[in-house]
Every structure is written in structure tokens, then in C-alpha cells.
Amino acid sequence: MNEKIDKIEKSKVSQKPTQYLEVFKSLIKKVSSASIIENKLIKGAELRNKEVEKHKNNSLKISVFLGLFTLLFSGVITKNIILSAGISAGFVAVIFVILIQIPLAKKRAYAKKVEAELPLFLLRLATEIKLGKSFSKAIKDSCTEEGNVSQEFKKIVQDLDKGASFQDALKKMNERLASITIRRATSNLSNIQIQGTKNTSGLKKLAKEMLLKQRIESKEFSGKMVVFALVFIAVSAIVPAMFQSFLLIGSYFMTIQFTALTAFIIIVVGFPAIDAAVLFMIESKTPIFLKQ
């Protein structure tokens, strides 16, 4: 009887290390496995990569399709296969680059719009944090006005409600916008949240620096606007008048090869196109915060 008891106790003792080993293995597996938030972030990155690849493939298909039409059209005109193939290949490359750059240009333009609205938003947010509110509540109360920056910070609140950490939500915002100015602001917010302090002097200082930068850009643009206005007046009024005077007076002294149709096209189509180009240049040089 005693021998049986001893055997049972020995078997229990021998089983304990194996039980501990299994528990340890399960703990390691839980710790090493990605959390739900991490899985969502990884899945989001994979989706973004898939969208980029899909956009590249679609751009390539469109450019090749247009290139085939260019090949046929240039082949009919030039009647030279090698020349038409070269023109078509160059056209495909240009269209592909343009289609690839369009989303990047839109992303940069959107980031500029967010940057333009950011200083006033940061000042509101600093006031809300100073009142002792949590970051989620402070951001919600700061997003009362409509705008691009409010929409971006509303996405941060949505990520926080889903269980993401504040740093992860800010990281996703930085990935969406890819702006150095916004990275500075989010880094400042992250430091305030990690330190658990209500000292928002750094945030206010950053917002004032951004407002000062906008004021300097506004003064520089107002100086350039004088030159732009003179160019526009010259192109839209002085040059067409001089051209018409040259046609009328010069026809008595010189043999001018302009037909009535050519002169009409230059006046009705050419000069308005130049005016539109000058206006487009002025619009492209105008700071975004002055357009809003």
C-alpha cells in the first residue's frame, strides 16, 4: 500500500515540470502573438500596399491602351513603324508617370490644407487640455468647426474608441499625411500625453511659429502679387492692343503674312489662353491658407 502511494506521488512530481513547461509555452505564445490593434494596423498597411499595386496596374493598363491608339495614329501619319513605335513608347511612359503622380499630388495638396488649418486648431486643443480634459475629450471638443484638420483628428478619436493607443492613432495620421509640420505637432502631443502633464506651452509655441510662418508667406506673396498683376495687365490689355496696331499700321509698310483667319485665331484664342496661363500661375503661387 505504501509503495503504491509512493509511486503515485512520484508520478505527480514527475508530471509537474511538464505541466509548468506547457503553461510557460502557452504564455510565450500569447506574449509573442500580435494584439488585435497590431493586427489591424498590419492589415491596414497590407491594404494600403495592395491599393498602391492596384493603382500601378490600372495606370499601366490605361497608358498601354492609349499607347496602342497613339501607335496606330502615328503609324497612319508617319508611315514609319520604328518612328511610330518610338512615339508610342514615349507617350506610354509620359502617361504612366502622370497617372502615378496624380495621387501623390493630391496627397501633398491635402496635407497642405491640413497644415493651413493646424495652428488655430492646436491653440483650441491646448486650451481644452489646459482645462484638465482627457485627450479624447479635448480633441472631440476641438473638432467643433468643419475643416480638413477636424476630420483628421476625428479619425484619431475613432481609433481611440476602437481601442488603439494614442501613439498608434497619431502614427496612422502621420502615415496618411506625410508632413513634417504635422509630425512636429503630433510629436508634441505625444510627449504631453506620455508625461501626463497639462503644460501646453510647447504646443502653443509651435502654433504661434506656424502662424508667424504664414504671416511671412503672406507678405512675400503680396510683394510678388504686384509683379503678377503687372504681367497680367500687360498680357491681357497692352500686348493685344499693340498686336492689333501692328497689324493695321504695319500692313501699309511691310508685307505681313497674317491672314484674316490667323489674326482672328490669335486674338480670340491665343491671347485668352495666355491670360488663362498667367491666372493659373498666380493661383498656383497663392498660399493655401489665403484661398480658404
Characterize the structure shown:
- The chain has 292 residues and is mainly α.
- Among the domains are: 113-210, Up-down Bundle (Receptor-associated Protein); 213-291.
- The protein is flat.
- The N and C termini lie far apart (93 Å).
- Helix content is 88%, strand content 0%.
- The chain contains ten helices and no strands.
Name the shape in a single word. flat
Number of strands: 0
Binned strand content: under 5%
Q: Main sheet?
A: none
pLDDT < 50 stretches: 12-17, 27-47
Question: What is the CA-CA span between the terminal residues?
Answer: 93 Å
With helices defined by DSSP (H or I, 4 residues minimum), what is the helix count? 10
CATH architecture of the domain at 113-210: Up-down Bundle
Helicity level, as a percent range? over 70%
- Overall pLDDT confidence: 79
Give me the Rg, rounded.
33 Å
CATH domain fold name of the domain at 113-210: Receptor-associated Protein
The CATH class label of the domain at 113-210 is Mainly Alpha
What structural class do helix, strand and pairing data support?
mainly alpha
Order of helices and strands: HHHHHHHHHH
